[in-house]
Amino acid sequence: MNKKWGLSAAALLLTAAVILPGCASKQEGPKEALKSAATKATAMSSYEMKSKFSINDLTIETADAESAAMTTQVLSMLKNADITIDGVYQADPMQTELTMVLNLKGDMSMSFNVPMVMTTEKLYVKVPSIPFFPIPETIVNKFVEVDLKALAEQEGAEFNPSALDTQKMQKFSNEVMDTVLAEYDEGKYFNELSPKEANLPEGVEAKQVVQFQVTNDNVKEAITIFVNNALPKIIDIVSKEEYKEMLQIKDADLAKAKEEITSSETRTEFDKSLADLDKYLTINQFHYNTAINKEGFPVYQDLLMDIKVNDPEDGTNVAFSINGTGQYEKINEKPEFKIGIPQGDDVITMDQLEEQFGSLGTY
After folding, report:
1. What is the pLDDT of residues 291-304, one digit of tens each?
2. Measured between alpha carbons, how far is 57 from 322 in angstroms, rounded to an integer?
């Protein structure tokens, strides 16, 4: 079952991911608006962002009674769970701060937040207080300092600051997005929405809203296009020296990946699985909306994926529905960092963290 629907789900998610930075400098057709997006996104030198990811439904039915009992216990915590992330970013000098809040629902409901700060060479993560988890009180609310350069040296690797280069990553996303969009027909996959139709939050003003959508009617074609046409070209983009260094990918791995996806054996297996797609995959909704303001910047994004997967062979049925939103404000304005770079007694090292956790075993 994993081979059958895992490829389908991955293709849909990746297609959504590369379309994320949607913006345009003028009222354009939906496809051209998204192409203009990547170029415009590279001009975002600072911004504030708010994101939310919610699991609306997560249900797994299986004929195995023991497995079903364990699954139900885990899913009771994840169903209706949500993650929110508030952050501030600036490109030069690079500084990012994020506060992630995780809300788990059900019988074991709990909520905790994890503030993080990143600079060119350092990552700071605040130790949260998590119910039922034995974290020493002496380190709760302290920031653990991770020296990224020293960490790389300890692992025998060369420190790669380009891996944290947000603007280079945006350039990479730009090329990938252009490649993917070029393969899809505008009339079948792209729509224009009015701001009212898009159900934008209060305070979000949009000149244009673009929607990318996959349905049961075009999902086979969409996945075929992505795997057969777009994916080999994406590997070619990744093969560029600047991106290989950033992503830390080896030539041998890239060559192997391209050989696998273009081989006749892989194509035959893929075509066979795709022919039966409607037997195990149902798309209730899959769309990605991008709202564009009058300056041409993305101010709001909304992803909805609601699918059902079933395997007639073993009786497994999965219902999966997620919703994600992202909002950007104060683009290219002077950033106002709320946390700042942690210093002094607010900071502990990785060694101190390990010592504190090691002391738990002495009681």
Report:
1. 988 888 888 999 99
2. 7
